[in-house]
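User: I'm writing a tutorial on reading structure tokens. Could you give me a worked example: one chain, its sequence, then its tokens, then a sentence or two explaining what the tokens reveal?
Assistant: Sure. Here is the example chain.
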Amino acid sequence: MDHAGPGTVGPWRAWWYETRWPPRANAAGLVFVSARAATGEAPVLGVQVFDDGDWAFLDGSPPERDAFVLSHLHHLLEADPSLEEMIAVERGMVAWREGPGEAWSVSPDSD
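And here are its predicted structure tokens:
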């Protein structure tokens, strides 16, 4: 695990080191992740920021009951550093891309 300081990492990781992942109510920087993305079976294709500040990283398949796990944010960033771009996504928004390396499209969450 990379424990380098903020001077050697991207903006999201630097923000993580400085703030410990606001809102502080998020226990130990945990985020929701689709089980397929958490195991590396599928890439993260969607990011949703709920109104309460919780984050979900999605693989693009329809969500099913028990299809999500909790994971530390840094595991996702280590597997896909391009996710650091998602730091700009605000509460109540969702971002999608067609595949890894593709451009993200951000819009208000319709749910």
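What the tokens reveal: Strands lie at 30-34, 46-49, 55-58, 68-72, 93-96, 105-108. The chain has a mean pLDDT of 79.
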